[in-house]
Amino acid sequence: MKKIIYAVLILVLLFGLIQLVPFGRNHTNPAVVSEPSWDSSGTRDLAKIACFDCHSNQTIWPWYSNVAPISWLVYQDVVEGRRRMNFSDWSSRPQSTGEISEKINEGEMPPLQYTIIHKNAILDATQKQALIQGLINAIK
Ligand code: HEC
Asked: How far apart are CA 126 and CA 123, in angstroms?
């Protein structure tokens, strides 16, 4: 019994300690520089629901993004997502559309760890095609 209590105490202590790690705490949303010239507001709506949290400067940071170790994962996704493709800084848009349609079609984007929590980001076949076509129009 004592051993279990000690184990729990150590876990609680560890959990408390990792909250002090500064990594992943910066939740600033940089200013929006330039969005794509959306072909329709519908395309933007789809991207907003399914992609903006990681691929824009308009990230909605949920409460658990303040709780380590989840905060580290969320932060990593946003930093990496923005670096690859940022709907709020479209001057650095992807050169080819192939990857976008591939990632959406194969269900790689939005990623599973995201759609488990954000059910409304799961796009059906029609929405996927609309988003792909809309983004292709925006890159041209
Ligand atoms: C949970 C965060 C998250 C969401 C939501 C998300 N992405 Fe991503 N995306 C990433 C990360 C991280 C990478 C880089 C790693 C990788 O390629 O898997 C990435 C990479 C990409 C790339 C590759 C870009 C390149 O040039 O390397 C494309 C294209 C992409 N995402 C499109 C989308 C689209 C379209 C949506 C919405 C339907 C979306 N993503 C939603 C996190 C996200």
From this structure: 8
Centre of ligand 1 to C-alpha 20, Å, is 29
Nearby residues of 65 by Cβ (< 8 Å), 6 or more positions away: 24, 27, 71, 74, 75
The string of pLDDT tens digits covering residues 38-59 is 999 999 999 999 999 999 999 9
Model pLDDT for residues 54-112, shown as the tens digit of each residue? 999 999 999 999 999 999 999 999 999 999 999 999 987 888 889 999 999 999 999 99
Range 131-138 average pLDDT: 94
- For residues 105 and 132, is the Cβ–Cβ distance under 8 A? yes
Kindly state if the Cβ of 53 falls inside 6 Å of ligand 1. Answer: yes
**Residue of 107, 99, 113, 97 whose CA lies nearest to 127:** 107
> Amino acid letter at 114?
Y
Alpha carbon distance 29, 23 (integer Å): 16
Residue 94 in contact with ligand 1 by CB distance below 6 A: yes
C-beta of 52 in contact with ligand 1 (< 6 A): no
Closest approach atom of ligand 1 to CA 118: 5
